[in-house]
């Protein structure tokens, strides 16, 4: 899942981004509304965590622009105000969910994951394919009932492949969904991660390389 965090309080923004990355999400961070509009115009995000009170371009205008573009991106709006009228106003702007500050990080994570599921065809909470069970909420992976410990990027790559339901996923698509914009696209990070993931999942191999196209399960 790829997420954009838009928050002018830099310490909070960076803390949220760090926490979501530990949950195997690819996260970009910006600190004002103008930068947010620039990012959503270039990258495809599953979820935008959007502070309402932003400098340069207000969060309301960012939300309106995302809606006008007809993007499948879901918006989780944050604000220091917890008034019901503010929540209603935010939702009427086109936000998909609303979370007042201060918030529990566990709740933020759960809401981001729930919104991320709504950007694609609905799938069961626990993904199963080729003897692999993946639970995104618990961040657990089992093969034939044996738990497998994965690093965050390995988990993210496996989740993308599982969600594709047998379709081929290119290296570029994996890079877009599992890494943030600071990753050099010319590195072999995808190939190395897939190799490590394939080894950890054991025999017989479940991740198939499709020459010239990508990978599938």
Automatic annotation (TrEMBL):
Which InterPro entries does this chain map to?
CheY-like_superfamily (IPR011006), OmpR/PhoB-type_DNA-bd (IPR001867), Sig_transdc_resp-reg_receiver (IPR001789), WalR-like (IPR039420), WH-like_DNA-bd_sf (IPR036388)
Say which domain of life the source belongs to: Bacteria
Give the Response regulatory domain ranges.
Answer: 2-116
Q: Does the keyword Ligase apply?
A: no
The feature table lists the DNA-binding region at 124-217
Keyword vocabulary terms for this entry: DNA-binding, Phosphoprotein
Does the record carry Nucleotidyltransferase as a key word? no
Which one Pfam family would you cite for this protein? Response_reg
- List residues, modification 4-aspartylphosphate: 51
Q: Where is the OmpR/PhoB-type domain?
A: 124-217
Protein name per Swiss-Prot or TrEMBL: Response regulator transcription factor
Q: Which organism is it from?
A: Streptomyces atroolivaceus
């Amino acid at each position: 899942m790829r997420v954009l965090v838009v928050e002018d309080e830099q310490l909070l923004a960076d803390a949220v981004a760090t926490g979501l990355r530990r949950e195997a999400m690819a996260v970009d961070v910006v600190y004002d509304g103008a930068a947010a509009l620039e990012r959503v115009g270039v990258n495809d995000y599953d979820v935008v965590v959007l502070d309402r009170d932003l400098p340069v371009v207000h969060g309301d205008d960012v939300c309106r622009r995302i809606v006008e573009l007809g993007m499948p991106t879901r918006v989780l709006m944050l604000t220091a105000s917890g008034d019901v009228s503010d929540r209603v106003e935010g939702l009427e702007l086109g936000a998909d969910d609303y979370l007042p500050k201060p918030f529990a990080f566990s709740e933020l994570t759960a809401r981001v994951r729930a919104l991320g599921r709504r950007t694609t065809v609905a799938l069961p909470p626990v993904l199963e394919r080729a003897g692999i069970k993946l639970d995104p909420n618990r961040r657990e992976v089992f093969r034939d009932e044996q738990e497998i410990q994965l690093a965050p990027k390995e988990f993210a790559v496996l989740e993308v492949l599982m969600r594709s339901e047998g379709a081929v996923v290119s290296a570029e698509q994996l890079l877009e969904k599992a890494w943030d914009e600071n990753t050099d696209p010319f590195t072999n990070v995808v190939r190395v991660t897939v190799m490590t993931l394939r080894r950890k999942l054991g025999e017989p191999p479940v991740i198939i390389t499709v020459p010239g196209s990508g990978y599938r399960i």
